[in-house]
């Protein structure tokens, strides 16, 4: 809906919807897996935490944009701006498991693989002119609600 309202703004960027779709998919996968594994406390706790981590990039991006205020060009710069916090949390979860369990829990490995794959795909799509055109058509099909 927000993209529909921004159609007339100069900074209109419908390709950013890739990030929103990635968050919805990963959150849903982790939440569903967490419910399925609720009888396994170690997996359940990690999957529930990963569901929160999956939707935390907005806060980390705001910290970057308002606090760090450094723009790094290119795909890596865009990835870093939005996903640096998630990367640090996943590394911390892995290190916690290594320290306490002497191995990384499979739920953390699954979570890191899913999130990092989604982040890479999102970063590539965000810079794709074809993806932008597809998202413009999607937003236009939704209609203007302003």
What does this structure look like?
The structure is a single chain. This protein is mainly α. The protein has one domain. It contains 7 helices and no strands. It has helices at 2-5, 17-36, 41-54, 57-68, 74-101, 106-126, 129-142. Helix 2 packs antiparallel against helix 3, helix 2 runs antiparallel to helix 6 (106-126) and helix 5 (74-101) runs antiparallel to helix 6 (106-126). The mean pLDDT is 87.
Beta percentage is under 5%
Tell how many strands the DSSP assignment holds. Answer: 0
Give the topology string: H per helix, E per strand.
HHHHHHH
| Beginning-to-end CA distance, first to last residue | 9 Å
| Class by SSE composition | mainly alpha
Mean residue pLDDT: 87
Helix content: over 70%
Outline the low-pLDDT stretches.
Answer: none
Compute the CA-based radius of gyration: 17 Å
Summarize the structure.
This protein has 146 residues and is mostly helical. The chain is built from 7 helices and no strands.
Helices and strands, with pairings:
Elements: H1 2-5, H2 17-36, H3 41-54, H4 57-68, H5 74-101, H6 106-126, H7 129-142
Helix pairs in contact: 2-3, 2-6, 3-6, 4-5, 5-6
Summarize this structure as a short list of keywords or feature phrases.
single chain, 146 residues, mainly alpha, 0% strand
